[in-house]
Structures are given as structure tokens and as C-alpha cells.
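Researcher: Go.
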Amino acid sequence: MGNSTLIYEEKLRHSLEESHTHLKRVEDAFSELEKNYNFPLNSEQFASLLETVQYLAFADQIIYRFSKLQDTMGAKLFKSFLLYQGENVDKPFLDILNRLEKMDILNVDEWFELRDIRNEIAHDYGESTNVAISILNTIYNLRGELKQILTSCEKYIKF
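Model: Structure:
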């Protein structure tokens, strides 16, 4: 095993670990909120959530960690995964996503939907109650897709 292979393996391990940490924080925060709220949230539930600092903190954590997870996967995990597989990553991001789709790791359209949510968070979260409710409910519904992408990547890895 060459030095570059070890470096790629270490980067991949780190990216996977970071991704799993963010996903666990999202799932833990939803578990805490689910003790008092049913998803999908409606406007009355969200208004109640806003009145309790602890629940608001869980909602903020979900949104923050989802953004970090999506960023980590897109900016680090995918490239380190392909490098570990011996592939060239010096190409446009869409080509990387298409390669991952061919490997049955993700669906490109679904990835862009996740990315759109992340971008919406960056620009609109906090400005509108309806947007915040929609973001939380969408993350609740789509977090399994991110988990599935991680699981699919791990099927290829032989550490």
C-alpha cells in the first residue's frame, strides 16, 4: 500500500467520521423533539417549539448539522471516496456526482434537492416561520437519504 493510498484512506475515514457525527446530531435532536412534537410540524407546534429555549436549540442544531453534513459530504466525502477507489477527481462536481450515481451511491437529482435545501437554509432560515417549518419538515423527511448515501459508500470500503 503506497503513501497516497494511506493518505486517501485517512481522509476518507475522517470524512466518514465527520459525516456520521453530523448525522447523529441531527437524529438525536429529532429524537428529542419527537418526545413532544409530531412530525411534520404544523404552525401551532412550531410556535410552541419557539417558546422553549431547549426545543429551539434542538431545531437550530438540526438545521446547522444538516447543513454541515451536506457540506461535508459534498466537499470532502465524495472526493475522498473516489480517490480511495483510485479514481480521478480533477473534474467538475457534476461529473463526480454522475460517477457516484453510476456506482449506485446516490441519485444526482436527489442530491441537488438536498443541496437546494442547504442553500435555502443559508439564505432564508429565520426570516419566515413558514420557511423554517418547511425546512425542518423537509430535513425530517430526507435525512434518511443522507444516511443511505453514507451506507452505500461504506459498502465499497474495505479498511
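Model: DSSP finds six helices and no strands in the chain.
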